[in-house]
Amino acid sequence: MTISERIFEKMDELNMTQKTFCNLTGIRQTTVSEWKRNNTNPSTDKVMVICSVLKVSPEWLLSGTEVKGEYRNQVDWFVVDKKCELGNVIIEYNKMNSIQRARLMGYIDSLKEMYKKR
């Protein structure tokens, strides 16, 4: 199943019209119609807003995998909204040179040790 197929399946499950979906996500109706007509997928910059509106995880939207109890497929990456606090941390980290990054990681290690002793 493609990403767009999962989107339309979830919209049906939520009894959400395409117009409502477009109003909530800010994605043009012509774009969403094109996904359906051509069986194409949304661009990556739309993933987080789609997940938010459909109340699904990026993991489910992208792969169809759902978390069941304690079982979870382990992944080596994260999807983070760049507008959130953690997204801002990543943006600022990426602006740093290697010395600044090493110093920041040293601070993080020190904080971890400090809280471990408490």
CATH level-1 class of the largest domain: Mainly Alpha
Helix content bin: 55-70%
Instruction: Find the CATH topology of the largest domain.
Output: 434 Repressor (Amino-terminal Domain)
What is the number of domains?
A: 2
Principal-axis shape: elongated
Specify the CATH homologous superfamily of the largest domain: lambda repressor-like DNA-binding domains
Number of strands: 0
Report what the structure shows.
This protein has 2 domains: 3-63, 434 Repressor (Amino-terminal Domain) (Orthogonal Bundle); 85-116. 7% of the residues are buried. The termini are far apart. The model has no long low-confidence stretch (mean pLDDT 87). It is built from 7 helices and no strands. The longest helix has 19 residues, at 98-116. With 118 residues, the protein is mainly α.
Question: Could you name the key traits of this structure?
Answer:
single chain, about 120 residues, mainly alpha, 434 Repressor (Amino-terminal Domain), 2 domains, 7 helices, about 60% helix, elongated
Write the layout of secondary structure elements.
Blueprint: H1 3-13, H2 18-25, H3 29-38, H4 47-54, H5 58-63, H6 85-95, H7 98-116
Summary?
The protein is an all-alpha fold. The chain has helices at about 5-15, 20-25, 30-40, 45-55, 60-65, 85-95, 100-115.
